[in-house]
Design a protein that fits this description.
Pantoate--beta-alanine Ligase, Chain: A,domain 2, three-stranded antiparallel beta sheet, about 130 residues
Length: about 130
């Protein structure tokens, strides 16, 4: 009993909680690493999307430049150029002096598998051709 005549206050034994801050810090670090990995994968996907759009734009311009030799030659030029920049030409359509191409690239996302990024582009004259 204490001097006032009441029972002493019970104290919680802190020994059972030793090291809990270490475990919490490890989980926080693991979560931070997971978020960092996801942001890096998202950045890789965005960069691949920009790359495939640039490849589609360039392939459409190459095809439009080769249309004087015919639509087959134009699409062949687009396919060759798309291959040089590491993409694949999925579709090429030539309608008179307009060319529309669709290029795609495979994006490996680590644990999230792989996805396909694709982009379309059109090249041709703005006004009438006579």
């Amino acid at each position: 009993m204490s001097a006032r005549g009441t029972a002493p206050a019970t104290t919680v034994n802190a020994r059972g909680e030793r090291g809990s801050a270490t475990v919490t810090a490890c989980f926080a670090l693991l979560a931070l690493l997971a978020v960092t990995a996801m942001v890096a994968q998202l950045g890789a996907a965005v960069a691949a999307r920009h790359r495939v759009q640039s490849a589609a734009d360039l392939a459409a311009l190459a095809a439009a430049g080769a249309l004087l030799e015919g639509p087959v030659a134009g699409c062949a030029a687009a396919e060759e150029l798309a291959g040089r920049v590491g993409t694949r030409l999925r579709e090429c359509t030539a309608d008179q002096w307009d060319v529309t191409v669709v290029a795609e690239v495979r994006i490996p996302l680590g644990l999230f598998g792989a996805r396909i990024a694709s982009a379309a582009a059109r090249a041709g004259p703005v006004g009438k051709i006579e």
